Amino acid sequence: VTNLIEEGKFKQTNVTNSSQHATGFVARYSSQTPDDFITRMEAIQNKSSYDLVIVFGGINDFIQNIPLGGESGETDKTVYFKPAVDYFFQYLVNNFTQARICVLLPLRNYSVYPNTAGNKQEVYSQYIHDVAKSYCLPVLNLTEESGFCPFIDSFKQMWTLIPSGYTAPDGTHPNAEYEKKYLTPMIWKFISGLVK
Question: What sign has the CA pseudo-torsion 62, 65, 71, 73?
Fold first, then answer.
């Protein structure tokens, strides 16, 4: 978002960035504060003022080992990933009817193994993709087509962020150079046809 504003693609006064660290469809940064996607989306008061909504998330649900659910008895959207994604997109499409809605699938992270819930990251991304497509929403597949592959150590060292207070790249977040050089042009090409 910052890069697109700096490049003059958006005016800062016209953009609301609702991103929050370590959150997802179910994933929360703090168990004390409801800051998941659903809670934040439902809290938006002026829904009719939006003309473009970009959904970008799901990696933290994988990282925080959120169970998929969706089976009989596993329908609590505050606990299970699939019911949360289902509810999120249904609510979004029903309440932001005047807006163009698009989806950026999450970037890969360093782990190629299943999380402790027994699922690989690609399962989370595929479910987001499938639900978005069921609502005819445009999807940019950053999971498989971004070029971002921090599971390769040399790539991780060169292109992922070293968080404040750490000495090594985290293998999850692209660094500022990668964002500016590769992700920003790719994302802008995707969304430029959706905005005036």
Answer: negative
- For 71-89, b/e burial (b = at least 16 CB within 10 A) is eeeeeebeebbbbbbbbbb
Checking if the pLDDT of 88 tops 90, the result is: yes
Task: Reply yes or no on whether the pLDDT at 107 is more than 90.
Answer: yes
What's the gap between Cα 191 and its chain centre? 15
d(CA 194, CA 190): 8
Rounded Cα gap, residues 150 and 134, in angstroms? 30
Tell the burial category of 150 from Cβ atoms under 10 Å away from its Cβ (0-12, 13-18, 19+): buried
Among 31-45, 111-125, 148-162, 169-183, name the one with the lowest average pLDDT. Answer: 31-45
The mean pLDDT value of the chain amounts to 95
